[in-house]
């Protein structure tokens, strides 16, 4: 039969000799391939071990930060935060640490520094949910800085996903800060649709609804005068 393999045309002895020749010729390539595979496996395990060690060290540093804050040692906490950002800047713990730093700065009235930390997480974090949380907090800081338009811009460049209700609420806060009560009320009501039972949100809506329902001072005075005149004529 035509088209067979080499083995089809050789005796057993010839096949054995042919196989030995193939091994001799290809042995260096086989050994090299095995070495490459072994090096790859070793390198991967070494890299994974290094990553695991880095995560453990970053986690330990983050725990130290929390402990320093619990003791009220702000100076030590800020120092550790800087070390964590420097040594493990790409670790998830670094993002968490930046959120902590922002809280510390807000508590001490350093809003610009807080905004910087939050913007870093909002723009660079690989954790989408954490980035959205940072964006919400950044918008609140911007409102506190008297920058409601900046807050609206911060909230307007991403899809909020599961945080839609909170995004509506903070947009409402920004609109309220701008003096746009109608827009604020609209945002608060949208937020309430996704966050039923939020007492603070309900209070905001109640306050704005009461303001809307109450007549303007001039209108109220006119109404009172007409009522008085009508009563006097009876």
Largest sheet: none
DSSP, total strands: 0
Which regions are unreliable across 5 or more consecutive residues at pLDDT < 50?
216-234
Structural category = mainly alpha
Radius of gyration: 34 Å
| Average residue-wise pLDDT | 77
Succession of helices and strands: HHHHHHHHHH
**What would the principal axes of the Cα set say about the shape?**
elongated
- Indicate the percent of residues in helices: over 70%
Taking the alpha carbons of the first and last residues, their distance comes to 127 Å
Discrete helix count: 10
How much of the sequence lies in strands comes to under 5%
Question: What can you see in these coordinates?
Answer:
With 234 residues, the protein is mostly helical. It has a domain at 159-213. 80% of the residues lie in helices and 0% in strands. Helix 4 (111-124) packs antiparallel against helix 5 (128-144) and helix 5 (128-144) packs parallel to helix 7. The longest helix has 59 residues, at 12-70.
What layout of secondary structure does this protein have?
Elements: H1 12-70, H2 74-87, H3 92-107, H4 111-124, H5 128-144, H6 148-155, H7 164-178, H8 181-194, H9 199-213, H10 217-232
Quick tags:
234 residues, mainly alpha, 10 helices
Nutshell version of this structure?
This protein is mainly alpha-helical and 234 residues long. It has helices spanning 12-70, 74-87, 92-107, 111-124, 128-144, 148-155, 164-178, 181-194, 199-213, 217-232.
């Amino acid at each position: 039969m035509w088209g067979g393999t080499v083995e089809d045309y050789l005796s057993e002895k010839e096949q054995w000799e042919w196989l030995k020749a193939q091994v001799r010729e290809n042995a260096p390539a086989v050994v090299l391939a095995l070495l490459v595979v072994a090096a790859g496996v070793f390198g991967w395990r070494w890299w994974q071990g290094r990553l695991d060690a880095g995560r453990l060290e970053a986690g330990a540093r983050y725990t130290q930060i929390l402990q320093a804050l619990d003791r009220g040692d702000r100076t030590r906490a800020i120092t550790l935060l800087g070390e964590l950002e420097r040594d493990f800047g790409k670790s998830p713990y670094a993002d968490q640490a930046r959120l902590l730093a922002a809280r510390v700065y807000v508590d001490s009235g350093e809003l610009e520094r807080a905004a910087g930390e939050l913007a870093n997480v909002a723009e660079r974090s690989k954790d989408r949910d954490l980035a959205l949380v940072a964006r919400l907090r950044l918008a609140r800081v911007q409102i506190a800085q008297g920058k409601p338009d900046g807050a609206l811009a911060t909230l307007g460049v991403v899809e909020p996903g599961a945080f839609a209700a909170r995004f509506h609420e903070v947009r409402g806060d920004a609109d309220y800060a701008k003096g746009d009560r109608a827009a604020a009320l609209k945002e608060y009501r949208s937020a309430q649709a996704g966050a039923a039972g939020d007492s603070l949100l309900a209070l905001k809506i109640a306050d704005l609804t009461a303001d809307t329902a109450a007549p303007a001072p001039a209108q109220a005075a006119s109404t009172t005068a007409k009522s008085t005149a009508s009563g006097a004529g009876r």
